[in-house]
Specification:
This protein has six helices and nine strands; from the N terminus they run βαβαβαβαβαββαββ. By secondary structure, it is an alpha/beta fold. It folds into two domains: about 1-105, Rossmann fold, CATH 3.40.50; about 110-210, Rossmann fold. It binds 5-O-phosphono-beta-D-ribofuranosylamine (GRF). 5-O-phosphono-beta-D-ribofuranosylamine binds near residues 13, 15, 110 and 111.
């Protein structure tokens, strides 16, 4: 079993979490999903984690008296499971500073567009794909980036592109982009698992040496 222990944070169906799990099972990603965290007790990802025997927990800030207690509990839980990297996969809550400070350059997110275009607050799900079609953009894609205190702003680790066709609707685009996310996200996580990522300011470089 791999020693690179990740926590996947998800609020919905968790198809990206499943794709990461598949990549691990198929030997394409040398990591272990040591914990799945959701803020939504009804999230499909929690039911899937239960069925597949993966360690999971629902922690929502609303359960706590204040944000401080919420973050303390979250950080203790992550430490208990010896988490080395947090992978956001459709987690619908802004990540607070205590987490960003505890995991510097070790929190990843995937966004269903080519940042910095079509990102920021309110740009999630079909809002993104509708905005792309309404704008008349000819290309779109996926962005994997590090998380900093601003929405969809941290250093970019990986981007992949696909063409928008004249016949695309927000729904067809969403399907094609999601499929591309599934092919992309585990590759970015693997770079961290191999300790290949060097971050300087907001630029990400890949070291040639496998450490
Ligand atoms: C994905 O489109 C991802 O880019 C965004 O949220 C969605 C999550 O989908 N951050 P899923 O729950 O992984 O299927």
């Amino acid at each position: 079993m791999s020693s690179f222990r990740i926590a996947v944070f998800a609020s919905g169906q968790g198809s990206n979490c499943r794709a990461i799990h598949d990549a691990i099972v198929n030997g394409k990603l040398n990591a272990e999903i040591a914990l799945i965290v959701s803020n939504n007790p009804d999230a499909g990802v929690l039911a899937w984690a239960f069925e597949n025997g993966l360690t999971h927990i629902c922690i929502a800030s609303e359960q706590f008296e204040d944000k401080k207690q919420f973050h303390e509990t979250l950080l203790k839980t992550l430490a208990l499971h010896r988490i080395q990297m947090i992978v956001l996969a459709g987690y619908m809550k802004k990540i607070g500073l205590p987490l960003i400070e505890a995991y510097p350059n070790k929190i990843l997110n995937i966004h269903p567009a080519l940042l910095p275009a079509f990102g920021g607050k309110g740009m999630y799900g079909e809002h993104v794909h509708k905005a792309i079609i309404d704008y008349g953009a000819k290309i779109t894609g996926v962005t994997v980036h590090l998380v900093d205190p601003e929405y969809d702003h941290g250093a970019i680790v990986m981007q992949k592109v696909l063409e928008v066709s004249d016949n695309d609707t927000p729904q067809t685009l969403a399907e094609r982009v999601l499929a591309l996310e599934h092919q992309t996200y585990y590759q970015a996580v693997q770079l961290f698992a191999e300790n290949k990522v060097i971050v300087q300011d907001r630029k990400v470089f890949l070291s040639k040496n496998i450490l």
